[in-house]
């Protein structure tokens, strides 16, 4: 019976992967209908991080020019996605607190689409902290960031040696600080 249950779980997982592969393929078909194949492949690589379909010569040229990072999924991709979702929420009148839900759904969908590589998971974790900080305000963002750093380091202590992790933490702290929530919180304690 446990084998049957494990098989059912694997089947559900593979159906999700298939669904996201179909989305990726549909994006590629739409891109190819309006752009040359190499341009469509580059655009898809910039969105999903998959540069496997990019012509070998183009990939080598990007590496030689120091532009191979353009097809790596990072916090920049997530920031652009969340900016669009936030703008859409504002345009339809969704309040700041309620906008967290579509932002988190979009974030989860994006992670599922591109795959949970370590850099994507790290960027998604920091984005989640950023969402909490912006939505909750009043200093909760920085506290959430610090808590997530402790949890992530507890789960994977080797992250302490990762420059990418340090940069993600610093960038997220900067975004939270620049949003003004933690400044207002500090001002309350100074009085």
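^ structure tokens above, recovered residues below v
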């Amino acid at each position: 019976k446990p084998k049957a249950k494990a098989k059912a779980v694997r089947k559900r997982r593979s159906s999700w992967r298939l669904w996201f592969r179909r989305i990726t393929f549909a994006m590629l078909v739409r891109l190819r209908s309006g752009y040359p194949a190499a341009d469509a492949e580059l655009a898809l690589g910039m969105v999903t991080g998959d540069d496997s379909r990019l012509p070998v010569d183009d990939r080598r040229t990007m590496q030689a020019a120091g532009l191979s990072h353009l097809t790596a999924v990072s916090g920049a991709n997530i920031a652009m996605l969340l900016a669009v979702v936030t703008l859409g929420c504002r345009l339809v009148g969704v309040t700041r607190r309620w906008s967290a839900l579509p932002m988190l759904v979009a974030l989860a969908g994006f992670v599922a689409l591109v795959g949970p590589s370590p850099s994507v998971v790290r960027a998604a974790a920091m984005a989640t902290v950023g969402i909490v900080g912006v939505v909750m305000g009043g200093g909760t963002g920085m506290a959430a960031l610090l808590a997530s750093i402790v949890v992530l380091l507890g789960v994977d202590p080797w992250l302490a040696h990762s420059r990418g992790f340090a940069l993600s933490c610093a960038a997220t702290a900067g975004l939270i600080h620049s949003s003004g929530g933690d400044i207002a919180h500090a001002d309350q304690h100074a009085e």
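The chain has a mean pLDDT of 78.
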